[in-house]
Amino acid sequence: MNIQEVEEHVKYQIANTPVRQYPFPHFFVENVFPDEYYQKILEHWPGADRFQSIAETGRTSGGAYKERHVVALQKLDKEADWQGKAFWEEFSEWFLGPRFLQFMVLNYRNWIMKGRSLPDPLQVSSDGLLVQDHTNYAIGPHTDAPHRLVSTLFYCPPDDSQAHLGTSVYVPNDKAIPIQISPAHYEHKFFTRINTMPFIPNSMFGFVVSPNSAME
Question: Within its chain, how far is the Cα of 35 from the centroid?
Answer without folding.
Answer: 20
